[in-house]
Design goal:
The protein is mainly β and 410 residues long. It has helices at 3-10, 12-28, 75-80, 123-127, 172-179, 210-213, 266-269, and strands at 36-39, 48-52, 61-65, 70-72, 91-92, 108-113, 119-122, 132-139, 162-171, 187-192, 205-209, 219-224, 227-228, 238-240, 253-259, 273-275, 291-293, 300-303, 310-312, 317-325, 331-337, 345-346, 348-349, 359-366, 370-380, 403-409. Among the domains are: 101-271, Sulfite Oxidase, Chain A, domain 2 (Alpha-Beta Complex), CATH 3.90.420.10; 300-409, Sandwich (Immunoglobulin-like), CATH 2.60.40. Bound molecules: the ligand Nc1nc2c(c(=O)[nH]1)N[C@H]1C(S)=C(S)[C@@H](COP(=O)(O)O)O[C@H]1N2 and molybdenum atom (MO).
Length: 410
C-alpha cells in the first residue's frame, strides 16, 4: 500500500466529515466571507469579484458563482509554480446537486454498453491496476470568456479557469480492455455523480471517440499533485483528457458507457459546440453557421510576474515572467514585447515537465515612462503561433490570441 492508498483509506472518515462543510457552504448559498475583491479587467465592465476562502479544500479563490460553485484561480498563483496547488485549483460545475461526500468503500465505477463483460469496479480494485502519471493543463472551454468583445453569455471568467496538475491514475484503455469493447463501438460516454436540480435538466455527460478513448493517454485519475482529488475537483476519480478542453474531464466519474453510435445527448449534440471555421471564429452576432464539438486546446501564454495595471518605479528595463502552454502538444518558444508588439524579445524557458503542462518563461524588456503594453506570444511544437487578433463566437470558447498586460512606470 503506497502513501496515496494509505491516505485514501485513512481519510475516508475525514471525507464524510468534510461533507458537512460542503453542504454548509454550498447548500446554504451564503459562503463568501468577503475579504478582498479583485478586478478582472473585463472590457465589458462589472469586473469586480470577491475573494473567498469559504469553500472546503480551497484557499483564497475568485468567486464567480456560489451555487453551483464557480471558483477562479487568481493569476498570482500561476507565478509561483507551473503546478497549481490543489487548494487554489479552479472549480466549475454545471448543476447545483454536486456530490458532497463519497463513501470510498461502496463507491463503484460502472462500465457497460457495447462491451462483452460489464464491470462494477471498486476503488480498491482501481488502485491495484498499473498506474500512469501525466502533467496536464485542465482549462475550461470558456476560460477568458469575460474578455470577449462584444460580450457573450456565460460565466465571465478572467484567465484563471485553468490549472496544471500531475494527474495519477489508470489508463482508460486498460479499463476498456477489461470490459472487452465489442466490434462496432463508436464513442464512449462518461457520466458522474452530480445531478440536475430539475427533472427535465440534461444530466451532465460527455463522450469521446473510441480511438481517442483507447489512445493510452486518456486516464482515470485518483491523484492530483500527489494527493487525492479535492471533493470540488471530482473526488474520488475523474477523467483526464490531456490536450483537450476540460468539459471532457468528467469529475466524480461513476459511469462509462461504450456506444455503438455517436452520442446524441444534449451536452454533445447541442452544448460546447464551436464554429467549424478557422480558429472557431465568426463575425460578432453570427448565429447560423456549421458547428462541431469543441476539442483540442491551442497554444496560450500569459505574463504572471506583474498584475495588469501595476505601477512600478521607472528603470531602463525590467524582468518579466509567466507561463505558456502548447495546447495539444509541447511548447516551443515564447517572445515578449513591451511596446505593444513592435519589438519582440526571446525568453528563456523553464524545465519541460511534460508537453501537456504549463512551461515557465522568463525574460527582460525595456521600460518607458508611462504605460507599457507588455505582450507575450508563443509557438507550440507543431509551429502554431498565437495570433494577434481575438476571435469571437457566441459560446465565448477557445480564446488564444496574444494577451496584453499594462504596466505603468512612474
Ligand atoms: N461531473 C462533472 N464533471 C465536469 C463538469 C460538471 O459539471 N460535472 N464540468 C466540466 C467543465 S465544463 C469543466 S471546466 C471542468 C472543471 O474542472 P475543475 O472543477 O476540476 O477545475 O470540469 C468538467 N467536468
Ligand atoms: Mo468548462
Amino acid at each position: 500500500m503506497n502513501m496515496l492508498d494509505a491516505r485514501m483509506a485513512a481519510e475516508t472518515s475525514r471525507r464524510r466529515l468534510l461533507a458537512a462543510g460542503v453542504l454548509g457552504a454550498v447548500g446554504a448559498a451564503v459562503p463568501a466571507i468577503a475579504q478582498r475583491t479583485v478586478d478582472l479587467h473585463l472590457p465589458g465592465g462589472n469586473a469586480e469579484r470577491t475573494l473567498t476562502s469559504a469553500f472546503p479544500g480551497k484557499g483564497s479563490m475568485i468567486l464567480q458563482r456560489t451555487r453551483p460553485p464557480l471558483l477562479e484561480t487568481p493569476m498570482e498563483v500561476f507565478d509561483r509554480s507551473i503546478f497549481t496547488p490543489n487548494d487554489r485549483f479552479f472549480v466549475r460545475w454545471h448543476w447545483a446537486d454536486i456530490p458532497t461526500a463519497v463513501d470510498v468503500e461502496t463507491f463503484r465505477l460502472r462500465v457497460g454498453g457495447h462491451v462483452t463483460r460489464p464491470l462494477s469496479i471498486g476503488l480498491a480494485q482501481l488502485l491495484r491496476l498499473p498506474r500512469v502519471e501525466i502533467p496536464a493543463v485542465n482549462q475550461c472551454s470558456g476560460n477568458s470568456r469575460g474578455l470577449f468583445q462584444p460580450r457573450v453569455a456565460g460565466a465571465q471568467w478572467g484567465h484563471g479557469a485553468m490549472g496544471n496538475a500531475k494527474w495519477l491514475g489508470v489508463r482508460l484503455r486498460d479499463i476498456l480492455d477489461l470490459a472487452g469493447v465489442k466490434a462496432g463501438a463508436v464513442q464512449v460516454r462518461f457520466g458522474a455523480l452530480d445531478r440536475p436540480l430539475t427533472p427535465d435538466g440534461p444530466d451532465f455527460a460527455k463522450s469521446l471517440d473510441i480511438d481517442h478513448a483507447r489512445d493510452g493517454e486518456v486516464m482515470i485519475a485518483f491523484g492530483m499533485n500527489g494527493e487525492q482529488l479535492p471533493m470540488l475537483n471530482g473526488f474520488p476519480i475523474r477523467l483526464v483528457v490531456p490536450g483537450w478542453y476540460s468539459t471532457y474531464w468528467i469529475k466524480a466519474l461513476n459511469s462509462i458507457q461504450v456506444l455503438p453510435h455517436a452520442d446524441d445527448h444534449y451536452w454533445m449534440a447541442k452544448a460546447y459546440k464551436i464554429p467549424a471555421t478557422p480558429r472557431a471564429n465568426v463575425a460578432p452576432g453570427s448565429k447560423d453557421f456549421p458547428t462541431i464539438p469543441i476539442n483540442r486546446m491551442i497554444p496560450r501564454s500569459w505574463m504572471t510576474s506583474l498584475p495588469d495595471g501595476q505601477v512600478v518605479a521607472w528603470e531602463p528595463s525590467i524582468p518579466v515572467g509567466g507561463i505558456a502552454m502548447g495546447g495539444d502538444c509541447g511548447m516551443a518558444k515564447v517572445d515578449v514585447s513591451s511596446d505593444g508588439g513592435r519589438t519582440w524579445y526571446r525568453t528563456a524557458l523553464g524545465p519541460d515537465e511534460g508537453r501537456y503542462g504549463f512551461r515557465r518563461w522568463d525574460g527582460r524588456v525595456p521600460l518607458r515612462r508611462g504605460t507599457n503594453a507588455i505582450m507575450t506570444r508563443c509557438w507550440n511544437t507543431r509551429g502554431v503561433a498565437q495570433p494577434a487578433t481575438p476571435i469571437w463566437n457566441p459560446g465565448g470558447y477557445m480564446r488564444g490570441n496574444i494577451e496584453t498586460t499594462h504596466v505603468v512606470a512612474a
